[in-house]
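ugh ok fine here u go
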Amino acid sequence: MWRARSVAINDDKHQIILQAQTWGAVGEQQTLQPAVEQLQQQLAKLDTVKPNNTTRTKPTAFTADSGFNSDENLAFNVHQRL
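structure:
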């Protein structure tokens, strides 16, 4: 039986899905970085995020359940300033 894993990133205030992807048989830990990177690319195309802009007007709040937890993902989030 083939099992897919889907991940969606939504806006907390309005519950709008901003980015969604489906993967084959992989663990959640392996889906976090590609999903965040794809969202960043989409927002850059909309000109909502300036590349290399390290100044944010509002802090970014980012939550994920424990299935995404790994040393690699924690380091990624620190590097991305999430």
